[in-house]
Amino acid sequence: MSTVPPPPDAPQLQIDTVVIGRNEGERLLACLDSLAGQVRRIIYVDSGSSDGSVAAAKARGAEVVPLDMSRPFTAARARNAGLDRLSANTSGGLVQFLDGDCSLDPGWLRQGADFLAQHPDVAIACGRRREQNPSGSIYNWLCDLEWDTPIGEAKACGGDALMRRDAILQVGGYRDTLIAGEEPELCVRLRKAGWKIWRLDEEMTRHDAQMTRFSQWWKRARRAGHAFAEGAHLHGAPPECHWVTETRRAMVWGAVLPGLIALTWSLLPLLGGVLSLIYPLQFLRLSRRDGPRRAWYSMLGKFAEAQGVVEFHLNRLRGRHRALIEYK
User: What pTM was computed for the model?
Assistant: First the structure.
């Protein structure tokens, strides 16, 4: 086990961390090693790993919480389990949430904690997440672009973030049943309670997606669509209108327009051919802004997102909550 001591002049930060993962292998070891010497307690919530993750985490001094896998898995439930373990013995302070496929930048905790100390109205501070190997595949590259988010006050954070524990508990923690999009939904409730979310121009984490197959990318986009639909269902009313635009965009480009074009082709082929031009025109428009590769996957992703939207509403009508399989 490698231990990196804090600098001699480092303040005694009251920071704990919750890491979640399943079968992350070497990525989990890198994650835990990046936390060594920087936090009071490391809580690792394991979701049924079979690769020795539990033993490896214990060997590195983490407190392991095995998630009850008799219930449908959600990352939100795993994060809450870690938060519950912390809150049972420790009150107040900050908690750094981290995914097991991410490693923490050595300077982040001081930067994030200092910012929160100077801004008592901010509940969550997050920094820059980067992809560890963006050139490893087109899908890793797309992830790296996704992490490039605007700096300043924000509506939401991602899975890696430094949070005030009392603020999270004040709003009831994460919503256990969400299949995806649990952080933005939490941020909606925090902002309604008067808290702010802030993104800093500081390096925070390195993410190791290891996404090499089209099927992985498709499942990820499909989960995003499911998250859009569920978020809009929960908080879509004005003034929040949470993920209403994203849901409508997915359905228009991934379901409504293809259906309309197919119907028109069968009835009025000439008009159907004209309508079909909307996709090449959209590709050209997006290519001018984002480049052809990103434009292509942006358009293709709308079909996967639309699938996720439809699945959410079908399951809701059936009164079922069914977790989608993870993209890894």
Answer: 0.88
Number of neighbouring beta carbons within 10 Å of residue 184: 21
Q: Strand, coil or helix: what is 86?
A: helix
Q: Look-up: residue for tokens 């890696």?
A: 160
Q: How far apart are CA 282 and CA 252, in angstroms?
A: 13
DSSP H helical ranges for 9-51: 26-35
CB atoms under 10 Å from CB of 65, counted, come to 20
- Burial state string for 72-105 with b = 16 or more CB within 10 A and e = fewer than 16: ebbbbbbbbbbbebbbeeeeebbbbbbbbbbbbb
pLDDT tens sequence across 42-69: 999 999 889 989 999 999 999 999 998 8
Residue 2 has a pLDDT of 34
- Kindly tell me the burial class for residue 319, based on how many C-beta atoms sit within 10 Å of its own C-beta (0-12, 13-18, 19 or more): exposed
Residue-level pLDDT at 321: 52
Enumerate the H helices of 155-291 as residue ranges.
165-170, 182-192, 214-235, 244-251, 257-267, 269-276, 278-290
Which residue carries 């925090």 as its tokens?
A: 190
Q: What size, in residues, is the chain?
A: 328
- Which pLDDT tens digit goes with each residue over 114-140? 999 999 999 999 999 999 999 999 999
- Distance (Å, rounded) from C-alpha 247 to C-alpha 310? 10
